[in-house]
Amino acid sequence: xxxxxxxxxxxxxxxxxxxxxxxxxxxxxxxxxxxxxxxxxxxxxxxxxxxxxxxxxxxxxxxxxxxxxxxxxxxxxxxxxxxxxxxxxxxxxxxxxxxxxxxxxxxxxxxxxxxxxxxxxxxxxxxxxxxxxxxxxxxxxxxxxxxxxxxxxxxxxxxxxxxxxxxxxxxxxxxxxxxxxxxxxxxxxxxxxxxxxxxxxxxxxxxxxxxxxxxxxxxxxxxxxxxxxxxxxxxxxxxxxxxxxxxxxxxxxxxxxxxxxxxxxxxxxxxxxxxxxxxxxxxxxxxxxxxxxxxxxxxxxxxxxxxxxxxxxxxxxxxxxxxxxxxxxxxxxxxxxxxxxxxxxxxxxxxxxxxxxxxxxxxxxxxxxxxxxxxxxxxxxxxxxxxxxxxxxxxxxxxxxxxxxxxxxxxxxxxxxxxxxxxxxxxxxxxxxxxxxxxxxxxxxxxxxxxxxxxxxxxxxxxxxxxxxxxxxxxxxxxxxxxxxxxxxxxxxxxxxxxxxxxxxxxxxxxxxxxxxxxxxxxxxxxxxxxxxxxxxxxxxxxxxxxxxxxxxxxxxxxxxxxxxxxxxxxxxxxxxxxxxxxxxxxxxxxxxxxxxxxxxxxxxxxxxxxxxxxxxxxxxxxxxxxxxxxxxxxxxxxxxxxxxxxxxxxxxxxxxxxxxxxxxxxxxxxxxxxxxxxxxxxxxxxxxxxxxxxxxxxxxxxxxxxxxxxxxxxxxxxxxxxxxxxxxxxxxxxxxxxxxxxxxxxxxxxxxxxxxxxxxxxxxxxxxxxxxxxxxxxxxxxxxxxxxxxxxxxxxxxxxxxxxxxxxxxxxxxxxxxxxxxxxxxxxxxxxxxxxxxxxxxxxxxxxxxxxxxxxxxxxxxxxxxxxxxxxxxxxxxxxxxxxxxxxxxxxxxxxxxxxxxxxxxxxxxxxxxxxxxxxxxxxxxxxxxxxxxxxxxxxxxxxxxxxxxxxxxxxxxxxxxxxxxxxxxxxxxxxxxxxxxxxxxxxxxxxxxxxxxxxxxxxxxxxxxxxxxxxxxxxxxxxxxxxxxxxxxxxxxxxxxxxxxxxxxxxxxxxxxxxxxxxxxxxxxxxxxxxxxxxxxxxxxxxxxxxxxxxxxxxxxxxxxxxxxxxxxxxxxxxxxxxxxxxxxxxxxxxxxxxxxxxxxxxxxxxxxxxxxxxxxxxxxxxxxxxxxxxxxxxxxxxxxxxxxxxxxxxxxxxxxxxxxxxxxxxxxxxxxxxxxxxxxxxxxxxxxxxxxxxxxxxxxxxxxxxxxxxxxxxxxxxxxxxxxxxxxxxxxxxxxxxxxxxxxxxxxxxxxxxxxxxxx
Length: 1307
Hints:
This protein is α+β, with helices and mostly antiparallel strands. About 30% of the residues lie in helices and about 25% in strands. It has 33 helices and 59 strands. The strands form 16 sheets. Strands 1-28-27-26 form a four-stranded antiparallel β-sheet, with no helix packed on it. Strands 2-3-4-5 form a four-stranded antiparallel β-sheet, with no helix packed on it. Helix 20 runs antiparallel to helix 21 (about 1015-1025) and helix 32 (about 1225-1240) packs antiparallel against helix 33 (about 1245-1270). The radius of gyration is 50 Å and the shape is elongated. The relative contact order is 0.03. This is IKI3 family-domain-containing protein.
């Protein structure tokens, strides 16, 4: 699909300086200095050789000149010229046998040094340097093959002898040949297919020039020599062409098989797989001129017909440096051939300006598509680029038209209509000459073909049916001399449907000519403009109103058709800017009235105006909305054309799995066409075959366009075909969907389509999640489809709490139940079941209402609902509807054993309706409903009251509240239920509620027992009064309550009972002091006028409390200090020597008789292994060797936090947290103790407690941040499957200041 586009043509008039009229004999590209080295002479009149250097600016510098010594009657001829930029020297090999080294003059040498470094008496017939410039291969006049080093030391020498032909015994099995095809059981079919019908002897061509030629393989490992061998037979002598292959060491590797009519040309493809030569067949009916190919072993591989006259002389045959183009030099032109899918295409025929015959050609050594050709007095440098001859990319004319040049045939394929694979084509256009360039207009109905001498215009039509589309026919020919008499036409482009531009080259500048066609294809020249430099390429703007022109200095100019104030069209030329470097391929797009020029340089850099988009681009295409390009990393990327070029967002290579703008493609694939209306891109693989893909981004663009047009069927079909989440039909524009639900339902037509949409709904907004990146970046933040793009994608709840799925299902159900109840029953069921939660009862109710007369519809509905939901669940729901017929239908769709459900259903049919409902609800676990039905039953089948059954049912299923509600108007039954409830509460240790229930029932004994068990002393003593118990019993109960409260650490309540009920102030004071309520104890002592208890009870309690708090603070201080020191030691060890920290063995896990010293064969445990208990061998498979017992053992280790284990740090941090909690809990006790000590004049003890507590608080505050700050790496853990997770961050405990007494805060 790719063609060679001529992007530059330079002509140089070459003349000798030292001696006049010396012919130009050879040239060489100097890739380092970007200059051209040319040699002149010798001629018949002057035996002089001259070397010149020609710069890009046209400046000529004489490097050297000298007189050559002729050998015999003919002058020396230059066999080979090679220039070495590193030594600034040139080596010339002359046919007379001399090898001349020339050190050219430079700043250090005023005169060139010419030296004959070697001479061969027999003369030199051919010479060629190896690609690495280290070995010179020569063939002498006496048919000797010689290899010389760069210092011209002999490396090897071989004589061409007839025995060389025995080196290779060629055996061909004829793969792909006609002779190997099956032809039946006849005599011919039984012939050995490996033996051809005619065996070539290698008869020399009648037009053979008798020369010897040499060609190296691209890596310099082998060299091929094509020479003539004289073979003596008994009856005759045969001259045969033979290609010998020698290794780099000069050892003969193989010789070619004999081919009749083979000529002297040989060119080894740089990639190394084939050797090209020429075969001329002049005898018989098949007179032709072929290019043939050999493998390295000498076997002939395949060939192609050059389509030339059999007598056409060929001058040379050369591959370009990247093995993509084969050039054939003829007398007056050069043919450029390429191969794709093993089919050879004639892409260009290059002519030298003027009528002079061509003398030589050479490819550039580094630029693969740059070549030089010339004759005796002029040179031309031609540069090409790979280009696509394509049609419009803008709908509705985006048919993906591609044109492929193949000689005098233009192969045309509209990929949007028929994806015809190469080397075939959909239609062909026959022209008179090989096209230089071609273009098709915006409506795909006019094709302009630029040829060497004319422009041919063809008409075509793509409107009719695909089968009726005919081949385009040439309708008009325009001689180029009628447009421009002196220039050389190079490129052609359409501006609009009937306007096209042609580029003409002149020496030093280019001219652009614009012509307009009428309905009869008659042309008018409407615009001409000259540029002061060469035009590189042109491109049509995406709106087809202008073309952009790139000049040789990377300047971009635009020529556009503009309507003036009088509605007359005029053409305006203006400068649009400058690309950072010259680009061989450009495209132009309009973005919000701004012109953006996209350019691809030969080095793979892709630019949008001055902004670089990519550094490894291999191909690109531009549409009105997107820039699509491929990269050397085998990725296809999209860039949204919105905003300025500096705002273009290019997806990263790593985003291939998460970003729809980037996807992987086959290695070496390139874009050849994009068809937005079909949301497809056509890629061509390196071997030539085509592949059509549908990028997710283009598909989504098509879906959005269809939704905007309310073409829901087209949008749905695209989503279904390309596996797009169907939620986008709603999420893209919810408001539009809600207004057109009925249109949506009617558009989908099929029930299956509607079911597919409903069943795939989710509460996720896909326009903000999986398809978010496909929106242009400038749209982020604006109100799109009634929702803000920056909102949380999961916020799909309306103010009324309904979710997106439920809203859609309700809207569809409203339409279906209104107008499609009979035809869309399946969709109605689907909508019910896809709600969240599923409305199973509504769906079953709908099915249950079906008439029994329509059994097919009923069975179909049951089958569908069983497909959507778990049939066991549906069976239970059907039973819950008390519809045994429906339950039976569903049970038949399940895997249930009929012996299980049939007896159950039969038993239900035998009982009364209320009893049946009770049994069904009990079976389904709906005990509250079952209780209602049982209570409504009143009497059983035998006529007995069912209240006893109700009581058992209530107790069994804990339905006390339900029963109380049911019997709220029947006091007797309600009290019976309440008594059962009270008993239940006491058994569950809910003593207070149980006591209240017993009080309500008037059962004071059980109420008192419940209150006492729950230590509810106030309620218990009140019940004692209500029950009018005697004083001894009350005192006994009070004593029991006081002791229980003391044990429960409710010291104030215990003191109250002792003081008010037992009248024991001494015990009351002891309880208060035990709880550090010294102020209350002092108050009671003085109020009861018991001053003796101050020294007897309160003072000793104060001293005991002082000792208790002092001991606590001392223990906490020591624990904090030791744990902080150990924690710092562990963390320092973790940083300085992590391997030792994580690998240290636990001594308790190692038996006494096992050495734990490491050996050379032992493997260290990693952090991963230590935290998961896995070995390296099981880490990747997710296998675990830990049993449940080992897991429990690991948890115990974590809880112990043994010193030296990996859990020690975690244990120390948690232990410190517990210490802080303990200090905070005792803060109030310490405060009350300090106040009590002060009141009893124990000032020193009070001061000491306050000081120590404050110091403890300050110590904790100084290190709390350090202790509880753990790095993210230290929080990393691995689960049993090898997945890493993070432990939750440690919250830093709050440590408040200790409130000191100011009267004591003076020390």
